[in-house]
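Protocol step 4 of 5: obtain the predicted structure for the target chain.
Materials: sequence only (see below). No template structures provided, no constraints applied. The aim of this step is simply to have a reference model before the mutagenesis design in step 5. Sequence pasted as it appears in the construct record:
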Amino acid sequence: MLALHALRPVALLAIGAWLASLIKNDVSIADSLWPLFILLAAATYLIAAPQTGPRAVVVVSLVAASALCLAAHITWRSWGEPKDRCYQAMRARNAPNFRWKSLLLVFGLQAALAWVVYLSALVAVLNARPWHWTDILGVVVVVFGIAFEAAADSQLARFKAGPAHQE
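Step 4 output (structure tokens):
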């Protein structure tokens, strides 16, 4: 079944991310990798689909643009910052052995959610019908959303960098 096809590579990426988190002793790297889990699911479906058309390439390209922008932003925002307080609280609640529990609680959950999130776009990847005006509207909405998110992230960074907003 094609819907399960992306689960394996996404799970392997999650395990690799978990192993990296053990080395860093910081599970917050999952935040930067979350969008890449979705991108990996998208690319896997594009490669595994029995037949694809221009719609599939456009959908996966838009997912790639969004995922790479979000991953870059999250990585840049958290670079050099102390460990995320949410993950510190999760570590405290799940002690002892949080390092092992984080495989399921953090990385396994994010891998499963990424797989589920992308299932909705799988329909577009597998759709071989000719382009319709709704496809064009969808592309416009997604491109606008990516640009809007990038502008909002930039504004937030400038706002937080102001001297009156230093923590």
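Step 4 remarks: The chain has one domain: 2-165. Residues 98-126 form the longest helix (29 residues).
Proceed to step 5.
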